[in-house]
Amino acid sequence: MNRPLLVRGFTLLELLIALLLMSLIAVLVGAGFQLTARSWESVDQRSQALAEAANIKHFLRQRFSRIADERIESTEEGALVQAFLGLEQGVLFTGWMRSINGDDRTAWIYIRFEEDAESGGQLMLQTAPFDRADEVDWQALLSELQSGDYPTYSLLQRSFETVQFSYLEQHDSNREEWHEQWYDRYELPRLVRIRFKPEAASAVWQELVVVPQEYSYGIRNPA
Amino acid sequence: MKRPGEQGFTLLETLVAFVILTLSLGLVLQIVSLSTRTSIRVADQHQALQLAQNLIDYELAQRQLEALSRSGETEQMRWESEVETYLFPDQELIINDSLQPYRISVSVFWSDNPEQSLTLSTVRLQRQ
Asked: I want to staple A83 with a disulfide (CB 3.0 to 4.6 A). Which of A22, A70, B92, B120 is the partner?
């Protein structure tokens, strides 16, 4: 063997120190990465939840602010009343819908909270044709909608414990009252309020308060 | 010291390379933390916007407009809403003054060092 005499390797001590340093750094980096990955995931989840809530609230705000000012004849009242049925867990009202061939028409819009044993409570959306000549029996209309002749869409693949709707009546500037129901009335509620209670606690589902555009843009009269 | 033609890294070089690697990883982590902070800010702003929209809708739902101010607090935020008579820039020139404009503005404040705020405002008319 032709081994040169002067080849020198590391001493054991040098090698040990080097290994120790490297492993220390490796442990630090590893821990940092783990922490980052975890927080990244939770931030990602939160921002997805936020985006979801923002979308749904935007949709609801648009729908409720554009409630059409339609009147119908109610069988119970026998008079022309507002085409608006507000219940604790759902609202049936009229609004503009764009049909497939591109023209806008007034339709019934039914947004409700529905409990489902499998997936928990969900927000559902349903639309049906509206004819202002029809005499309306609220009970019959509701059961017709629930019979499933009209397609039902789930607004959100997320389950809520409850979603509550309430309606503001304003007698005068100092006296107002929130109702849990609103039907056979001669005018729309001044405000519609929606309170969400998600199954898992979340900061993004604060309540939503919407004014119908009829009130929002109208010119006010003096008291 | 070395056989001709044979060359490797020294221990020192390896260590230095390792340190550089670690530093650059630290930079990556910093970027991640920055984006985390940004998304928290976005969440706060969204919450403030929701609150402001609710409050301005409440003012818009009032039957009559009158100059007033309200304020209040939620768990994390403080708000002020104000209704005041408003003058359009060229309004003096208009003879018909049967309509009185009112300016409605809602501000929401929340502490995020420094304090952040968001204001929505609009104008509505009332017959005299």
From this structure: A70
What does the alpha-carbon distance between residue B31 and residue B26 come to, in Å, rounded to a whole number?
A: 9
Comparing CB atoms, the residue among B39, B55, B64 nearest residue A173 is B64
Distance, CA of B7 to CA of A8 (rounded, Å): 13
Reference B109, options B122, B121, B118; nearest CA is: B118
Q: Nearest to residue A132, comparing CAs of A109, A110, A150, A106?
A: A106
pLDDT tens digits for range B62-94: 988 889 999 999 988 999 999 999 888 876 766
Two tokens at A24?
């220390």
**pLDDT, tens digit (0-9, with 9 covering 90-100), for B1-27:** 545 556 777 878 888 988 898 889 889
For strand A135-136 and strand A71-74, is the pairing parallel, antiparallel, or unpaired? parallel
Q: From A41, which residue of chain B is nearest by alpha-carbon distance?
A: B36
Amino acid at A167: Y
Q: Say what angle helices B11-60 and A12-65 make with each other, to 10 degrees.
A: 20
Q: Is the CB of B1 less than 8 angstroms away from the CB of A7?
A: yes
Whether the CB of B39 is below 8 Å from some CB of chain A: the reply is: yes
CA distance A67 to A76: 22
ipTM of this complex prediction, to 2 decimal places = 0.81
Sign of CA dihedral A195, A201, A203, A205: negative
Q: Per the structure block, which two tokens stand in for A114?
A: 């529905």
Beta carbons of A105 and A95 less than 8 angstroms apart: no
Residue A127 tokens read as 């639309």
Burial of A178 (0-12, 13-18, 19+ CB in 10 A): exposed
CA B63 to chain A, closest CA, distance in angstroms equals 7
Query: Cα-flanking dihedrals φ and ψ of residue A187, to 5°?
Result: -140, 165
Closest CA to B58 of B88, B83, B77, B76: B83
What is the tens place of the pLDDT at every residue in A26-85? Answer: 898 889 889 889 988 998 988 898 998 999 999 999 999 999 888 888 877 677 888 999
